[in-house]
Amino acid sequence: MEEACGVYAVLAADQPVANLTYFGLYSLQHRGQESAGIAVFNQGKVRLHKDMGLVSQVFDQDVLARMPGHLAVGHNRYSTTGSSRVCNAQPVVLMTRLGPFALAHNGNLVNAAELRERVDDGAAEFTSTTDSELIALAIQQAVERGLDWEPAIREAAALCRGAFSLVIGTSDALFALRDGYGIRPLVFGRLGEAADGHWVVSSETCGLDIIGASYEDDVKPGEIVRFCCGDLEPKRDHWVEASTRMCVFEMIYFARPDSRFFGESLYSYRQRIGRILAKESAVEADLVIGVPDSGIPAAIGYSQESGIAFADGLIKNRYVGRTFIQPTQAMREAGIRVKLNPLPDVLAGKRVVVIDDSIVRGTTSRKLVQALRDAGATEVHMRISSPPVTHPCFYGIDTDTQDQLIAARLTIEEITAHLKVDSLAYLSKEGMVEAAKAKSEHFCTACFDGAYPIPMDQSVSSSKLMLEPSGVAAVNRAQA
User: Fold this and answer.
1) Quick check: pTM over 0.70?
2) What are the catalytic residues?
3) How far apart are CA 106 and CA 395, in angstroms?
4) CATH for 6-245, among 3.60.20.10, 3.30.420.130, 3.90.70.10, 3.20.20.140?
5) pLDDT single digits (tens) 317-338
6) Are 201 and 190 in contact (CB under 8 A)?
7) What's the mean per-residue pLDDT of the chain?
8) Secondary-structure class of domain 260-441 per CATH
């Protein structure tokens, strides 16, 4: 399952905001590995640097040294609308009568085609094929009609349907905003002492930790927060009525285990779902192993509850990106043995329970099972710390056709045979929600049950390339 993007911003006079944002994006690299970018505001002007690749490939000290300023907006991208090319990298920077602004977006709009028609006034200059640029154009047009920054952002947000956690920088302020469902996370914190009036906004709390910023609060669903240099408190208001539906996969997999949700690290939550999984699907075995890194906390929880010894049976090459981050299936298949290698002296002659966070297409899992058997495991029992993924996500995750999802096509018995495991069991939806310190109705679980909180246009299911020239033509034909 492909991830959402990472957004980040630092507002701090007399601080190296570009360098701080670099480290913030570094901590959010797990959320997107296709491109990275930083826009820095300095004396009414903005300097933008973005390119394809990891943060460490896009930026070096020479580049950062040329980006002084008081405000930086940063972005890591995994493409969910728009192809993987440099013109689609973020932040999006546009000019207005009030000066420049920079926008970074995490999420996915479900009315992108409709929004494109609305902002295409004949004068709009499209330089990308992303829904993020459409949001920026809507803000630009609202400003040009005479609105100030905050009313313009509110007006643009009201035109959007779907998932959008935004950071928006201007010459004199930083704005953070979440859609009314709060599908993707967004937090903010203080850098330095409270009297400094320095602020940081990040997709996850790990982005605050890395630069020593203290967590202040989440940007609430439906909230817009304005930060100004030197302000001891931000201005907070709701731009739309909230109906919280945070993506539960953020809890299970997407966010880093050291990031905090609902007052605790996700490591603790993932251990609990491992314990529940052991209660729901016990099996006789000699070892419990986790698929690094995301399966490890649940595997430890499974081991603690079952009494079966935990061991490191798989070693991860930490210098290789996640196999499924690659945009083609062939690259995913080629990457699995580069990423993970089993330990024969740990696995040989053992009945093994292997814990993973999900099975999406099944390609990686099948190859992993074969690698464990090749290493000498006599039995392989697979346990998944989430329910079967049966429906595509349209809110910022790249599973946009149901025929990609193995659990939508096959029964659990058929998946067991396909993976060639001795047994297979998934965490129940009830167990997944029970382990969270939040009410069940506060989560989006559409990928497990098809209950989409946000209605969408029929054209949305076409593909992430719907705003490419050929995709636009296809959408227009479908609507006609």
Assistant:
1) yes
2) 5
3) 9
4) 3.60.20.10
5) 766 554 444 445 565 555 555 6
6) no
7) 89
8) alpha beta
